[in-house]
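FAQ: What does a ligand-bound record look like?

Like this one, built around nicotinamide-adenine-dinucleotide:
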Amino acid sequence: MSEPRVVVITGGASGMGHGTGHRFAENGDQIVVADVNSNLGHAVVREIEDKGGRAIFHDLDVSEEESVNDLVAWVESEIGPIDVLVNSAGVLQNPMPITEMSMEEHDRMWDINNRGLYMCCRAVAPHMKGRGRGNIINIASTTSFVAWPLTAYDPGKTSVKMLTEVLAAEMGPKGVRVNAVAPHITATPAIQSRIDAGERDPAKIVAQNALPRMVEVEDVAEAIFFLCSPEAKAITGVTLPVDCGFLVASSYNTYPK
Ligand SMILES: NC(=O)c1ccc[n+]([C@@H]2O[C@H](COP(=O)([O-])OP(=O)(O)OC[C@H]3O[C@@H](n4cnc5c(N)ncnc54)[C@H](O)[C@@H]3O)[C@@H](O)[C@H]2O)c1
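The answer part, i.e. the structure of the complex:
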């Protein structure tokens, strides 16, 4: 157990954000579930409270600068200094050639996954730098490292990895660490709905991993928790794969003979 912290989780109502909220709440941290989906967000708060944890919901649309700035100002004045920001709000893409994705869909994805994440980092930066402490965690992806047929999503996740590195270098001298996790395909509601619709096959996903299993939300939450812990005090600027060995096995298994 480390000192209780104020932990803001964008996209905290579902998937990676949901699991991460539970993990930090077990440590006694105060969780701020910030999400565009208020029904789910309030339900997550109730779940955490039912387990004896501390959580509160706040509306957030990461694609709106005013909404991002309102959230950060409200947490800082009403809840306490933000110790940890986890940027988990995001949307996924179905595979398609570049010609089949409309520019509206492309721009919407970048507004949430990239511009939104950028604005959240930008809003907490002066507070964390001013106090000389803090952790920011971004959710990248294994697509930050390899190309898939996701023309808007892949470049966006590579950009998240690079932003993580840039901000780690900028904010490190002020005592703030900035890291990312790169999960491989994980059965969050966003992926489970595609599995249920027959669009994704878990057996094929597992077959590409070194470890014969899928990544679970708890695996990602645990990695995020570690990166924000005192034990990780020498780690900044990394994008840590949480991928059951997908990145190594996929290249190893396709070695051309
Ligand atoms: N599931 C995977 O396989 C996987 C793998 C790698 C990376 N990721 C990344 O993890 C992150 C979380 O994805 P997930 O799988 O948990 O999805 P999810 O759909 O379960 O959760 C995403 C959450 O973000 C919220 N959200 C969406 N748009 C928002 C907005 N404009 N403002 C605020 N909140 C918003 C949703 O309401 C939802 O609660 C995303 O960045 C995603 O790209 C997911």
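Follow-up question: can I read anything off the structure? Yes, for example: Strands lie at 6-10, 30-35, 54-59, 84-87, 134-139, 176-183, 239-242.
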